[in-house]
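Structure, all three chains, one model.
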Amino acid sequence: MSPDEFLPILQARFPQVEFRLDPLNPQALFMSASGVPEVFGWLRDAPEAAMQYLEFSTAVDSPPDCLCVVYSLYSYTHRHRLALKVDLPRHAPTIPTLSHLWENADWNEREIYDLFGVFFSGHEDLRRLMMPEDWEGHPLRKDYSHPNLTPRPD
Amino acid sequence: MMRQFPANPDLTVEEFELNMGPQHPSTHGVLRLVLTMDGERVVRCKPVVGYLHRSIEKMAENRTYTQVIPVTDRLDYCTSMTSNYVYVMAVEDLADITVPPRAEYIRVIMSELNRIASHLLWYGTFALEVGATTPFIYGFRDREKVLDLFESTCGARLLYNYLRIGGVSRDLPEDFCERMLAFLDEWEPLIREYEDLLDENPIFYNRTKKVGFLSAEKALAYGVSGPNLRASGMARDVRREHPYAVYPELEFDVPVRTEGDVFARYRIRMEELRQSARILRQCAEKLPGGPYLEPQPLRMVLPEGETYVHLESPRGDIGCYLVSQGTDKPYRCKFRTPSFCHIAVFQHLVRDCLIPDIMAICASFDVVLPETDR
Amino acid sequence: MEPIFEQFVRDLTGGFQVPFWAPMLVSLGLVLAFIALNAMFMIWLERKICGRIQRRMGPMLTGPKAWARFSMWTGGWFQTPCDSVKLLLKEDIIPAQVDRFGFMLAPVLVFMAALAVYVPLPISSTSYAQSAPIVVAVADLDIGLLYVVAITTLTILAILTAGWASNNKYSLLGGMRAGVQILSYEIPMLFALMGPMVLAGSLSLGDLVLVQHAGLFGVPLLGWFLVPSFLGAVVYLICAVAETNRPPFDMPEAEQELVAGFSTEYTAMRFAMFYLAEFSNTFVVCMIFTAVFLGGWTLPGFIPPSSLNLGFFSLPYFDLLAGMAIFFAKAYAVVLLLMWIRWTFPRLRPDHLMTFGWKFLLPLSFVNLLVCIVLAAIQQIYFGGNPG
């Protein structure tokens, strides 16, 4: 199933959550942060979706307002892929965790927390993964600065 | 956690923490495993990564599309061609570039040769972890011949920087196919030699059979892919599921086993060596003439958009999620690497086993740290 | 050693009476020199065999270039002396938190054991024609076999001390593993050696060899205890490899897992002690195997004359020299076998090691003992007992 086939099904099932198509990415759907655990739970367990595989999750920083967390799910039974993007406010990005659904999400979310500063509520062990534990700042943000970062000559 | 013996209340038993790595003669790269041990048994294992974090994704945001290619080399330096390929494929997908057929064949030849080189390296280090030193030399000796082939093509043995957006950077040398076929003719019977050293050995059997069992459900939940997933029973190979390049025209088998233990993962990779040789022979036969590169402007500007492409690296499913905002540099380039998920699986697998088993399990998963830490 | 040494000095100097302490010192000097030179040779041999098995050449760059160009087997002989000098020149580091007494005691203990075990090992003998040939050993003890097994147990103490005193979890694990491994394999080894003891009716190693020369059931060719006590020979060889911590039984020093096991914290001369002791022990077990199962310095049916007439001069002590040559040839053949095993097999896991030793080798060694008792009884009853 492609994302535009998913869209009406999801909108019917979860009317309180906003979904819309992504004009720039034909494989993705935008959704609001409120329904994250239920929607993803349904996507994993429902037989018509059967997304047992969380391929990756990451974040894209778009200053000044929003930070978008991207989840890419894949189903081995139906061989379809769906990417879900959640826009979060940049100053206080919080989203419920998915580590109880896919164990893969555990480390993915730790990495996003480390590099972008997104807080995953309900995650058991949210600490830095790549950077040292006492690092300040979130390096992959666009406004990150560090004395060692020098601009490249163009 | 302290335990007391009911018969002798003065005797207490405590668990202790053993730190393996990041500097250790055996962990593949700078991986640190914090083990909580009860005597010789491991109770808990927490992998700590990040020692090799070089912020490749941040670097990619500050370079033009062509300048990112050498950076992707360092993503997984054992399979540098595949890392190049996944990034270049993502850019070509976004920019809608068609690659000439000769370049597609050359890319497949390079990917499969890289698969052979990576599996030979894996074979050597895996046998070394289990304690046999001779297979290490055999694997590396034959890997040298593959690296010679690479060196004659692009001048480098490990970090190739060979693929370009729209093709490859230079054409194959004239006698490349003859030399490659000569190498395959000489080397394919040697796979039998590698197996002879380990396969029928009862010591090896005891070390690898029923050790490190990973079920298919757990494997999917952790995001395991590649030979490790195929060893647990799921017959999934990106080259078959979502074929790219010229794989639809090539015939090859995808080995699958259901035992899910270290031995199964070992057998699958040995079979994959043979299948790669088969693919290479077909490519050498079908290699067309023509241009090897669709030239692109030096500073490419891609239209706005996002894409995710993935392909089958020797370790698993490597993917690139590329976001472009209409400039000449990637806006966000995320690499989905198989070893990231495989190391996360260690927490689940390495429980209630002995230290030698840890080494066997780690080695059988074929993790490389540069890929994990990026 | 004393009778041979005194006879040698008398022949040389025409009647000089040696003081009582001279043979002891001479034997000590010879054994030390032998340990050092043999270790150098064996390390070189190990690296060449390893190279050949791995289809490469081993050390080639040290030593005269012409020798290296001549053949793979003559090149690189200078490697081991260079490595030894390097090891001696290294800085001796004693980490701050170790237990100093134990740390310094362990290498001494291990070398003591390695040195002391050479005492009853016979390498040759004189005067076959006489009814009581004189055996060439530092001292051909009546309880030679028992002595050897007892002394090799000292290594356990040394390794446990090293592991504990190093104040390092890896060393502790290595030391514990080594202790448990050596203890478990001592017992099948002892029972495997009991077979030949029963067949020969004596614990003295010299006697064992002489009985083998006499033959089984009157047939010299069947004399080597390898034949009647074949299971015992196999069990002994496996246990010997386990005793000396050689791969595939090198769990205590598994580089891939424990860095260097119990010898992690040791540097320079102290490490050299462990290393030397390991190679020395390897050769000692090969010597014991040769003496007990392969007929020692004798060949079936061959009695060397006591001096060889070469026309222009006659070589004295020929029986002694021939015996030594035969003995060392056999011992080095066993060494080659051990090296072959080392470079081919992977490593055993500790629990497999224990299972293998206790549940497989120990029952096998009992079976072997039964077989030897039966054969010795047949020999006693029908063939008039065994000589010596």
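Chain B touches chain A through 38 residues (CB under 8 Å).
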